[in-house]
């Protein structure tokens, strides 16, 4: 029998349910948000953090805005958007392994902010990726965007490169905008993304996050995954190159010569 709590948030004609296994007291907690984005670093980082620091899965998010998909783990279905809690460290993780349709991102961001306010969460850290300038490709840089001056100081103190001018988008960007005048500390950490699933950027992001939170975590497995991913990518590119050369040679051999 379900003994938990369901917090319903209504945005226009959409409903977002935050389903908790038990009513969660998150007053004064820091929320780490990791939803799919560039390089998938938000999801990769948040999921890795939850696993390595032994967070307890305490709930999930369901909505008629979500695509009708499930996540399968160890042969069993689980919700792709989940809530993890570490009561000792006063941390909560909100992560998703499903892409949120662009049309619903604004509505979902409003729903998440309403949940944050109702739960009296005091700080939000969004994890995401950014495609850096070519001259900074390959460099271990973590960028940041703050919602207010206090959050900006936190980024400066932790040697995060603040993005002073530019345009950003996505769920984490809209959450920051919604929180701008809410008197809640909020900032986004962005990894330097170079490939589709960037484990290296995720490892760098986690290291910076742990520095800010004052916790320790081993990122070697993620870096190993990065090397394996890069190796597989190089092999794939080489296969594409060889295939392209073979196709070109075949086309050249079959092209009639005007002098023949």
Describe the structure.
- This protein is α/β, with parallel strands linked by helices.
- 37% of the residues lie in helices and 26% in strands.
- The chain has helices at 41-52, 105-119, 149-157, 171-179, 199-213, 220-254; strands spanning 5-11, 14-20, 30-34, 56-63, 71-73, 76-78, 81-86, 91-96, 123-130, 142-146, 161-162, 185-192.
- The strands form 2 sheets. Strands 1-2-4-7-8-3-9-12-10-11 form a 10-stranded mixed β-sheet, with helices on both faces. Strands 5-6 form a two-stranded antiparallel sheet.
- α2 (105-119) crosses α4 (171-179).
- It is globular.
- 38% of the residues are buried.
Gap between N and C termini: 83 Å
Give the helix tally: 6
Mean pLDDT: 84
CATH architecture of the largest domain: 3-Layer(aba) Sandwich
Supply the CATH class of the largest domain.
Alpha Beta
The gross shape turns out to be: globular
Largest sheet: 10 strands, mixed
CATH superfamily of the largest domain: PAC-like subunit
Count of extended strands: 12
> In what range is the share of β-strand residues?
25-35%
SS-based class: alpha/beta
Number of domains: 2
User: What is the third-level CATH name, the topology of the largest domain?
Assistant: Rossmann fold
What is the gyration radius calculated from CA atoms? 21 Å
| H/E series | EEEHEEEEEHEEHEHEHH
Helix content: 25-40%
Low-confidence parts: none
Lay out the secondary structure.
Layout: E1 5-11, E2 14-20, E3 30-34, H1 41-52, E4 56-63, E5 71-73, E6 76-78, E7 81-86, E8 91-96, H2 105-119, E9 123-130, E10 142-146, H3 149-157, E11 161-162, H4 171-179, E12 185-192, H5 199-213, H6 220-254
Parallel strand pairs: 3-8, 3-9, 9-12, 10-11
Antiparallel strand pairs: 1-2, 2-4, 4-7, 5-6, 7-8, 10-12
Helix pairs in contact: 1-5, 2-4, 5-6
């Amino acid at each position: 029998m379900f003994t938990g709590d369901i917090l319903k948030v209504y945005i226009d004609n959409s409903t977002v349910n935050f389903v908790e296994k038990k009513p969660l007291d998150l007053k004064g907690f820091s929320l780490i948000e990791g939803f799919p984005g560039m390089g998938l670093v938000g999801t990769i980082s948040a999921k890795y953090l939850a696993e390595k620091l032994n967070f307890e899965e305490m709930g999930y998010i369901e909505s008629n805005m979500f695509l009708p998909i499930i996540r399968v783990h160890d042969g069993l279905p689980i919700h792709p958007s989940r809530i993890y809690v570490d009561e000792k460290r006063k941390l909560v993780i909100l992560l998703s392994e499903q892409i949120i349709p662009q049309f619903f991102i604004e509505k979902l961001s409003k729903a998440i902010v309403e949940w944050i306010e109702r739960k009296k969460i005091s700080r939000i850290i969004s994890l995401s990726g950014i495609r850096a300038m070519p001259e900074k490709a390959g460099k271990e840089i973590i960028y940041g965007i703050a919602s207010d001056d206090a959050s900006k100081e936190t980024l400066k103190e932790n040697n995060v490169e603040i993005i002073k001018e530019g345009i950003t988008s996505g769920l984490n960007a809209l959450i920051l905008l919604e929180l701008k005048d809410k008197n809640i500390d909020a900032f986004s950490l962005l990894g330097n993304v170079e490939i589709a699933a960037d484990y290296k950027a995720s490892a760098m992001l986690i290291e910076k996050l742990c520095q800010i939170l004052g916790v320790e975590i081993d990122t070697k497995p993620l870096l190993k995954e990065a090397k394996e991913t890069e190796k597989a990518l190089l092999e794939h590119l080489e296969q594409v190159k060889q295939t392209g050369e073979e196709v070109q040679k075949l086309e050249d051999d079959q092209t009639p010569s005007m002098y023949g």
